[in-house]
Every structure is written in C-alpha cells, then in structure tokens.
Automatic annotation (TrEMBL):
This is Protein HflC. PANTHER family: MODULATOR OF FTSH PROTEASE HFLC. One of its GO terms (cellular component) is membrane. It comes from Oleiagrimonas soli. One of its GO terms (biological process) is proteolysis.
Length: 289
C-alpha cells in the first residue's frame, strides 16, 4: 500500500512538472497536441498544458536581422546596378509562422529573402538611375517594406519592420559618368559661391571707400574750421599786441622773418644796404641812421 501511494505521488509530481512551462521575456509560444496547434500567442510568464499529450514550441519574439547577399538589378534605362541591403523583421503571428517554417528561423530567412528581393527588383526596375542615386533610396525602402510586409504577413506570419539599402554599386562606365556629373555640379556650385563672395567683397570695399571719403571730408572740414578759428584768434592776438606796443610788435615779426629766412644756415640774401628787411641790424629801434 505504501509503495502504491509513493508511486502515485511520484506520478502526480511528474504530471505537474510536465504540465507547467515558462515563456521567458522576449519569447512567445504555441501549444501543440499531436502536431495540431491547440493554443497560440502565449506571452511571457507561467503557463500550463496537458502533460504527455501536448508539447510547447517557443519562438524568439525579438526583432531579427536578415543581411542578404547583394543582388544585381536593372533600372528603368536597363542599366545594371548591384544593391546591398538588409531587413529587420519579427514574428507577427505564431500559428502562420509555425505552419510556414515549422519554427525554423533559417527556413524563415530563406523564404523571406526572395520576397524582399522581388519587391526591391520591382521598385528599382520602375526608376531611372538618376533618381536611384540622387535621393530615391528612402522612398524605395518605404515601398519595398510595404510590399514585402503585406506578402509575408499572409504567407509567413512575419512583420517586415524595416528595409535599408546599405550600398548601391554602379558599373564602371556609369560610375565615371556619375562622377563627372557630380564634379561638374560641384564646380558650378563653387563658381557660384566664388561669384557671390566676389560680389559681396566689392560691395563691402565700395561701402568702405565711401565711408573713408566721408570721414576724410568731415575731418578736412573740421580741420579747416579749427584752423580758421585759430587764425582768427591769432589775428586778434596780433592786433591786440600791435595796438599795445607797435614798435615791439614790428621787432618780433622781424625776428620771425629772420628765423625763417636763415633757418638752414645756408641761405644767401642779396639786398640793398638800406633795405627795410635789414633795418634792425643797423638800429635796435628799426629806424635809419
């Protein structure tokens, strides 16, 4: 009796142990019974199933990356380009994903890659090379993501989160023409910038010259005004001095004339002996003897 009770207890413990399962963070799960899906989308946490009759299949619910091999496509003008891209995706519907891939992520990637490549081929074929190079990548990847996502949700249970183009390689003849065009555009832009800078420089120099002329004219005007005022003041002083002592004033003015005439010490004057210029050499009061 004790043995039977022990065996029963062990069976109960094993049943409870096999009936409980944990779905970790970043995972989702489905429950299978004889290969048939019984329950889907079990979220992280503790769950239960029928022991021995049901099995659990866990999936990685995080965003996955598909880094595909570069593919060669033809543009609208039938020019060949090689496009290198990658895809971000995750499981959107567990039941569809399991039925399409049996839960194998490698098989999921193998089936996802052709869908994205077909969508990318459709978009590249519909666009000229200039648009593809100059700025059409964002629009292309947006359209490719929409087309691929609509297809993979139905057939694979996969959500295409993002599609990005890493690099577009051009044939050598196309690359040369593109580089020449880019060089011509940059040269044109540089010439425009130089022309604009030269024009701005001419305006600045012209404005500076005008301001310089105005400043010089104002300075000359102020200087002339000051000189005029000084001459007027000097004339008043001279007149006042002359009125106080005419004889001393004549003597002082003659000394200034002598200083100016003999400033360099080499001057030679030929004058008559009775010249008024030499009157103070003969008589201290400036009169004739």
């Amino acid at each position: 009796m004790k043995v039977a009770s022990a065996i029963l207890a062990i069976l109960i413990v094993l049943g409870l142990w096999s009936s409980a399962f944990v779905v970790r963070e970043g995972q989702s799960a489905i429950v299978l019974q004889f290969g048939r899906i019984e329950r889907t989308n079990d979220q992280p946490g503790l769950h239960f199933k029928w022991p021995f009759l049901q099995q659990v299949m866990r999936f990685d619910a995080r965003i996955q990356t598909l880094d595909a091999q570069p593919e060669r496509y033809f543009t609208l003008e039938k020019k060949s380009v090689k496009v290198d891209f990658y895809v971000k995706w995750r499981i959107a519907k567990n039941s569809t994903y399991y039925q399409a891939t049996a839960g194998d992520i490698t098989q999921a990637r193998q089936r996802l890659a052709p869908i994205v490549k077909d969508a990318l081929r459709f978009e590249v074929n519909a666009r000229p090379l200039d648009e593809l190079i100059s700025g059409g990548r964002k629009d292309i990847t947006k359209r490719v993501r929409q087309l691929a996502d609509a297809s993979t949700r139905k057939s694979l249970g996969i959500e295409v989160v993002d599609v990005r183009i890493k690099q577009i390689d051009l044939p050598s003849e196309v690359s040369d023409s593109v580089y020449k065009r880019m060089r011509a555009e940059r040269t044109k832009l540089a010439n425009e910038l130089r022309s604009t800078g030269k024009e701005a420089g001419e305006k600045i120099r012209a404005n500076a010259d005008r301001q310089r002329q105005v400043l010089i004219a104002d300075a000359n005007r102020d200087a002339a005004k000051v000189r005029g005022e000084g001459d007027a003041t000097a004339a008043q002083i001279y007149a006042k001095t002359y009125s106080q002592d005419p004889q001393f004033y004549n003597f002082y003015r003659s000394l200034q004339a002598y200083r100016h005439a003999f400033a360099n010490g080499k001057g030679v004057l030929v004058l008559k002996s009775d010249s008024a210029f030499m009157r103070f050499f003969d008589n201290e009061d400036g009169g004739k003897r």
